[in-house]
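Q: Here's a chain of 330 amino acids. Please give me its 3D structure as tokens.
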Amino acid sequence: MNTSSPDIPDVEVVAAVLMSGDEQHFVLACRPEGKAYAGYWEFPGGKIEAGETPREALARELREELGIRVTEASPWLVRDFDYPHARVHIRFWRVTAWEGEIGVSAPLEHSAVCWLNTDGPCKLAPMLPANLPILKALALPTRMGITQASKNGVRAELERLEKALEQGLRCVQIREHDLPDAKRQGFVRSVMALATPKNAFVVLNEDGSGRASELARLIGAHGIHLTSKALTQSVKRPNYPWVGASCHDAAELAQASALELDYALLGPVLPTPSHPEHPGLGWEAFAGLLENARLPVFAIGGQDASTLKTAQSFGAHGVAGVRGQMAGDR
């Protein structure tokens, strides 16, 4: 709800999520004395000046504030926040490579910077409120594997999953509506037994029947993933730590955002072996739908580890798939 005065200005801002090479750590900066919200922690960035693109503003701000030259960056999320002095429209970018050393190549404009783990609690305080939802998004892995035990057989699928987990997969969606209830429950328990020691999280695909939601609570899964049908029927966010949804168009993405879900899958982006007749959205249309994405979005359809960087360059958080991701590819 917007509680700000109609007279306050709208401000366009870029913010940088600087990631370590293994993408397991990120940077927060502390606002210096003399600036609004001095002492608050934030993702570094600033206003987009007249005539600048968001990418140009990002490069300039990081050069001025941290003394680094950005060499690799991709659009990620958009957030809106009403401060007393302005309505701020923030475009977050993932910055994965740069030249120079933070605060060494040039004077540091912040009072301090700190590297934090993506999967750990943030103990820095106070934090600028607009940045708080980004911390949870950072804990979301960039690859999601989707099971197909009903096709491959339970034993073969568990072997395939174990290999994928050994090779770094940290997010699993169980989509097994065709398995009988008892067999499905056993499969979910086995997946949890494999995933838990690897600190991977597991979500169950919910088709609107409620079966997956009940099973997720019974087994202790991390959350549920709504089919597009279940998404459109939902009027409020299901009460789970992690909730995502499958989307195919702008309306479904808007619904996922309105429900404040944690992520969405969008596609198919490219043709797949199971649906070779479907040309897919294509990367340009995919990027257009993500222009103002309020939540992390995975590209699905023709995706595997080799398409991750491409997907991120078009605004995706990561990639999801049944074949490539569950094959254990890095």
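Q: Can you summarize the key feature?
A: The longest helix spans residues 181-195.
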